[in-house]
Amino acid sequence: MEINLIRKNDKFNFEAENSGGIKVELDANPKIGGEGKGFRPMEMLLVGLGGCSGIDVVNVLTKQKEPLDDIKINIKATRKDEEVPPIFDVINIHFNLYGALNEQKVERALALTFEKYCSVSNILGRSATINFSYTIHN
Hints:
Blueprint: E1 3-7, E2 14-18, E3 23-26, H1 41-63, E4 70-79, E5 88-98, H2 103-117, H3 119-124, E6 129-137
Parallel strand pairs: 5-6
Antiparallel strand pairs: 1-2, 2-3, 4-5
Pfam family, one: OsmC
InterPro entries: KH_dom-like_a/b, OsmC/Ohr_fam, OsmC/Ohrsf
Protein name: Putative redox protein
């Protein structure tokens, strides 16, 4: 895995590119001079968590032959602002799942995701409490 970053201006705006040529922009908090031209690095960690866990949930539900029509994920996090560096304290991730889904299979898919498969949650879970919840929309 390789990521390359280039600075885009004379401030804190960077463009990151993966080996497949996909790009994303990052920027600093406006408190230190960021201009809102991209995700903040800590937001990117949450994007990674949402993407990783979302992919794993979809994968497990697909293997279980569950009729998942759609998935929407919301993540809210708090940081230990009094510490340096201000790492995440609590991360709450909520899955809105759409389809005629079996609740036990959904719970199993989420448990497998956070206990076994999602490497991002495994990493972030070493320093923050990660809580997950879900709503099934039939």
